[in-house]
Amino acid sequence: MNFQVPYEALTNDRKFAVTIGMFDGVHLGHQQVFDTLKHKASQLGLEYAVVTFKEHPQIVLNPNSDLRTIMNFDEKIKAIENCGIDNAIVLKFNKEIAKLGAKDFLAILHEQYNVEALIIGFNHHFGHNKNEKFEDYINFGKEIGVEVIQAEEYTGDFSPLSSSIIRRLITAGKVDDASGCLGNIFKIQGNVVHGFKNGKKIGFPTANIKPTNQLQIIPHNGVYAARIAIENGNFLNAICNIGTRPTITNSNERSIEVHIFDFDKDIYDLDATVQFIKFIRSETKFSSLEELKRHIATDCEKAKKILKNTTK
Fold first, then answer.
1. How would you write the chain as a 3-class SS string?
2. Which domains does the chain have, with CATH numbers?
3. Of 20, 41, 66, 204, which residue is least crowded by CB atoms under 10 Å?
């Protein structure tokens, strides 16, 4: 990104068309808004940027919220950049900003950040008063000197579409549907940490993944066809188990364990990215370790077939 400005006014003559949002997941609906932003900015002779926040507003306003995010901030910024957006105005969301009305917020964008056009996502609301409508935003903009433009509704294969819908898909284990909505394979970034090494004891060694995003949304407990990349290397085929290992332990602590096919290297303490391709089965407590081993072997064969037929 060319700039990220928390508070300071821009002191040059750059003028911007922007769109505003949390953009968690940077899904297909967000991408359509970005395309509209770039097109309108070109028509108006403006540069373009996104206005976003490091902190999710829901978590700031309700610290006890159980909200989990699809991406952390750095992942989101990278995904936005991959959409061809090179500028970001990053604001610190706090209770003072939450109290601002849409008109006051528009004035801040215009006066402090040289915003001359605002692209609003379809059915998107901003500002303290949720009863204000798009027509109100247009009128506020006319008073302030900001042209307000509404993006078209996303009507693709996965409509209706929102970050909250994608989160529900992920927590239900429907990772392939979530990936379709995202336009990219859903993934978790983390670090390989030491576990109980139970997988190795039964012939299926696993990499125990600790997510780097403390608010990371985790799929439903179960077994998934997956891929894993170590230290930004190539993706390797694998299966991933999410859950509490009920056959082996009585713990309620969830873990993310990845068994990489045909792989035998020490990868402890290395960074890893896990792609979730497809749900295979729910986590089950088996009557014996032998039964568990048979099911894992079957899971591996199912995962290999799924991955063979999946475009990388």
1. CCCECCCCCCCCCCCEEEEECCCCCCCHHHHHHHHHHHHHHHHHCCEEEEEEECCCHHHHHCCCCCCCECCCHHHHHHHHHHCCCCCEEEECCCHHHHCCCHHHHHHHHHHHHCEEEEEECCCCCCCCCCCCCHHHHHHHHHHHCCEEEECCCCCCCCCCCCHHHHHHHHHCCCHHHHHHHHCCCCEEEEEEECCCCHHHHCCCCCEEEEECCCCECCCCCEEEEEEEEECCCCEEEEEEEEECCCCCCCCCCCEEEEEECCCCCCCCCCEEEEEEEEEEEECCCCCCHHHHHHHHHHHHHHHHHHHHCCCC
2. 16-150 (3.40.50.620), 185-308 (2.40.30.30)
3. 66
